[in-house]
Amino acid sequence: MNFKAFAFAFMIILTSCVVYAQNKIILQTEDKWKLEALFESSEDGKYVILLHDLVRKKEDFASFEKSLAKAGFGYLAVDLRGHGQSTNLNIQTNFKKTGEDNEFNQMGKDVDAAIEYLNRKGVYNENIFLLGAGLGANVAAKSLPMHPKIGGVILLTPSLKSRDVLTMAGIRTFKGPVFIGVSVEDRKQFMEASFIRNAAFLASGQGKVTFITAYNLKGVEMLNRFFTDEVLQWLKTPQLPEVLPDNQGLYGGDNQGIPRMNMQDVLQSLD
After folding, report:
1. Is residue 9 included in any domain, yes or no?
2. How does pLDDT run across 150-206, given as a tens digit for each residue?
3. Is residue 249 in a domain?
4. 221 burial class (0-12, 13-18, 19+ CB within 10 angstroms)?
5. pTM for this one?
6. For the chain, where are the E strands, in sequence order?
């Protein structure tokens, strides 16, 4: 390799390292946790907060992050408290597994810190989406009452309860779009995800809930193998357009000033 080629290759490597270093940030939670996160800016203004599963870390989303960036979406991948590089106060193996105030339930404050960070950058809540896998899905769901105006939530293999982090209370209050992905191989998990889907439908209404299944994979593995394209499309159009009944306005009228019409009126209008 000649000197010019070597210098060019070195500059490419150096530039890549600088960009990567710039994407690492530290989030400060209300209760003094310092969370390491990876941030990538958005081309179209939409951002996805990525929440990993139990005993996992933010790097689990590396493949999906590339797909998000390619599609123009920004992201904030967070090491939840006690995980990855966010272990300054404790590690998750020391957390209590039960109790409504255990550290797993306090992860809602991790979500608060992530949303606050994006808000400070001028991102409106309606352009922020939560995506959680496993425990991260439960954390995302439980956080919804505190952030009812976010753009939507993606729950990959959620359960009714994980480390005493409950999903149903949050889902029952959320009026926005919901995407749920689950494996059909684990019957218990499939049934629990179905209950969550039903609660989301009752809260959000027609056209706002997407429920999709895969065969044998869970969480991020399921996302990477089966659901990447579906999730990206959902992020672009998370809510289906309202479909009005064929006869609304034509025969029955409505409350928007559209006159009532009968069949004779219609026939005469065709003459």
Report:
1. no
2. 999 999 999 999 999 999 999 999 999 999 999 999 999 999 999 999 999 999 988
3. yes
4. middle
5. 0.82
6. 24-28, 34-40, 47-51, 74-78, 128-133, 152-156, 161-162, 165-166, 178-183, 209-214
Statement to judge: residues 263 and 173 lie in one domain: no
* Coarse DSSP helix, strand, coil percentages of the chain, rounded to the nearest 5 percent: 45, 20, 40
- Determine phi and psi for 262, rounding to 5 degrees: -110, 175
> Is 216 part of any domain?
yes
Q: Which tokens hold the place of 189?
A: 């998990």
Together in a domain, 157 and 266? no
DSSP 75-111: EEEE--TTSTT--SS--GGGS-SSSTTSTTGGGHHHH
pLDDT tens-digit profile of 40-65? 999 889 999 999 999 999 999 999 99
Task: Confirm whether 270 is domain-assigned.
Answer: yes
The alpha carbon torsion through 61, 233, 201, 108 (nearest 10 deg) reads 30
